[in-house]
């Protein structure tokens, strides 16, 4: 905190800035946490408010394992603090930009509990801002901070801002439960309860603790002692140490994320700072379907920043962060983690004692899987899996012509239009406001893109779309596919289920024909002949690993 003299100096600078004609029409927005408590801070904020500028107040709120305690903590931090501002400086909330911490990656994160859905935790904070009268007229909301986000948190933050800040909604954005119950005892606070251990030798696996270990992991403002327990596996030359648990309460077909931390116990106990070490660990999820392109994930180092024991900002404890995404095949699966890199190779020093905790599994947003990661993650994903695919074409039916038809699409040829079966609806879209709705009655129906795309012969592509069905009865091999001009070549159609199904991404991977004379200018076709039922289609994409499709 600044001294009183420093605050007064800042106040004078702010006053001069406000009076400078060269600064007219601009704003100076300070970033301050509850500074009205001090006389100097009070004078500074009064100067800012007198100039007509807003200010940013930071409230970084960690997860609490109990939902009732969490809501009370959020209300206390947000509502009580805002009331304090209003009592000290009436009208200040209308100039306030609330800064919430959405950081989801170590070394500093408010995602502090592996038994809490972080998206729901963020949603609860926005609900209070949107619904409590003390925040009426709030200047704005500023999540902190995007380069600490994983792709899903980045997308979720945007949806929260739209739902509450732009659309003015007060109902919850998420319908997920606050408490996660897919993995039990994820921090080993109850010893090895709920876990099945297969030690390589007697005494090679055990639970230990270290005061402040959760702080070293970057669990910002976590409850006292949270994260201080961990499972230890001492690597053996004879066989891997393995531990596993059944993953419960899964929704078949849904994506889930897995994250956990590992550390070196010897380094921890002896105060050794050892950088540039990736721990030899393998992860297997039995009963999970492979994702297009393989399981997406990464593993990389991060360091502590807090002072605990022998560690501080200049002498840091280095750990590994592990992240995966998988799709559930059934209501249960099995997580298996080993301290060998492969079933036959240790991959790391024999005798190294690895620590494991914060084993979190939570629902993952389908569309977030295909986003390009932010800078903090991009190099890590590229290092472990190669460059992420580029989304080279996206059509979500959001832009409409005056007649209500989607821009960029048209009916087919000859007698295959049957456009009365095709409409754009503004309810129940997977993302955005609109989606395409087809009500098939057996007649030939074709709807396609206006502009063709050019594909490279011999290159592999993936066509995908979000699809929902109702009473669908398939009778033809067509559907959602790519076809060249003249229809001398077409890709396989997306496989769609009969009957009813909720929103799910359907995809097909194909290689563009490498034959002389074949036309490689193709359009996305929605083509049905004899099929009956209803379909909703949204977010159509074409993806290739390393090159964009050009119009």
Quickly describe the structure.
With 551 residues, this protein is α+β, with helices and mostly antiparallel strands.
Number of E-type strands: 25
Largest sheet: 7 strands, antiparallel
SS strand fraction: 25-35%
Average predicted local confidence, pLDDT: 88
Helix/strand-derived category reads: alpha+beta
Secondary structure tally, helices? 8
Helix content: 10-25%
Q: What gyration radius follows from the Cα positions, in whole Å?
A: 27 Å
> What's the end-to-end separation, in Å?
56 Å
Structure write-up:
The chain has helices at 4-19, 39-50, 67-88, 118-131, 151-166, 213-216, 265-270, 375-385; strands spanning 55-59, 96-100, 140-141, 196-198, 205-209, 229-234, 242-247, 255-264, 282-286, 288-289, 297-303, 318-328, 333-338, 353-363, 390-395, 409-411, 422-425, 435-441, 445-449, 453-454, 460-473, 480-484, 499-511, 521-528, 532-544. Strands 5, 6, 8, 10, 11, 12 and 14 form a seven-stranded antiparallel beta sheet that branches. Strands 15, 17, 18, 21, 23 and 25 form a six-stranded antiparallel beta sheet that branches. It has eight helices and 25 strands. Helices cover 18% and strands 30% of the residues.
């Amino acid at each position: 905190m600044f001294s009183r003299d420093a605050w007064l100096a800042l106040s004078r600078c702010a006053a001069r800035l406000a009076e400078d004609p060269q600064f007219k029409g601009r704003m100076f927005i300070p970033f301050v946490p509850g500074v009205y408590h001090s006389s100097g801070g009070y004078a500074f904020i009064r100067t800012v408010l007198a100039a007509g500028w807003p200010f940013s107040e930071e409230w970084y709120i960690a997860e609490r394992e109990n939902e009732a305690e969490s809501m009370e903590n959020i209300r206390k931090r947000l509502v009580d603090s805002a009331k304090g501002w209003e009592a000290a400086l009436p009208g200040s909330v209308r100039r306030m930009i609330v800064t919430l911490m959405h950081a989801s990656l170590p070394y500093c994160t408010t995602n502090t509990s592996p038994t809490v859905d972080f998206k729901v935790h963020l949603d609860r904070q926005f609900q209070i801002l949107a619904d409590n009268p003390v925040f009426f007229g709030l200047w704005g909301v500023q999540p902190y901070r995007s380069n600490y986000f994983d792709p899903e948190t980045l997308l979720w933050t945007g949806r929260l801002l739209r739902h509450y800040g732009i659309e003015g909604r007060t109902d919850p954005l998420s319908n997920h439960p606050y408490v996660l119950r897919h993995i039990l005892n994820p921090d080993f606070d109850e010893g090895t309860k709920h876990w099945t251990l297969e030690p390589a030798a007697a005494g090679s696996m055990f639970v230990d603790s270290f005061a402040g270990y959760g702080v070293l992991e970057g669990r910002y403002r976590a409850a006292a002692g949270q994260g201080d327990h961990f499972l230890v596996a001492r690597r053996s030359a004879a066989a891997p140490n393995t531990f596993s648990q059944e993953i419960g309460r899964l929704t078949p077909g849904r994506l889930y994320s897995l994250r956990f931390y590992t550390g070196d116990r010897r380094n921890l106990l002896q105060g050794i700072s050892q950088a540039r070490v990736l721990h030899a660990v393998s992860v297997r999820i039995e009963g999970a379907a492979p994702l297009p392109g393989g399981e997406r994930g990464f593993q990389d180092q991060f360091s502590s920043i807090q002072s605990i024991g022998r560690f501080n900002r200049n002498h840091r404890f280095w750990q590994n962060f592990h992240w995966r995404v998988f799709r559930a095949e059934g209501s249960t699966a099995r997580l298996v983690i080993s301290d060998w890199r492969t079933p036959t190779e240790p991959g790391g020093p024999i005798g190294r004692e690895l620590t494991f905790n914060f084993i979190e599994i939570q629902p993952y947003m389908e569309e977030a899987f295909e986003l390009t990661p932010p800078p903090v993650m991009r190099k890590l994903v590229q290092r472990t899996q190669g460059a992420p695919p580029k989304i080279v074409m996206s059509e979500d039916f959001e832009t409409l012509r005056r007649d209500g038809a989607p821009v960029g699409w048209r009916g087919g040829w000859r007698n295959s239009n049957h456009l009365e079966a095709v409409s754009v609806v503004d309810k129940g879209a997977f993302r955005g406001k609109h989606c395409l709705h087809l009500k098939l009655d057996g007649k030939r129906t074709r709807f396609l893109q206006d502009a063709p795309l050019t594909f490279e012969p011999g290159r592999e592509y993936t066509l995908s779309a979000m699809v929902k069905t109702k009473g669908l009865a398939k009778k033809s091999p067509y559907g959602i596919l790519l076809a060249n001009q003249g229809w001398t070549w077409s890709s396989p159609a997306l496989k769609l289920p009969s009957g009813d199904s909720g929103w799910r991404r359907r995809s097909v991977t194909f290689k563009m024909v490498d034959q002389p004379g074949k036309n490689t200018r193709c359009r996305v076709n929605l083509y049905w002949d004899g099929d009956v039922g209803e379909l909703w289609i949204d977010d159509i994409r074409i993806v290739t690993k390393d090159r964009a499709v050009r119009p």
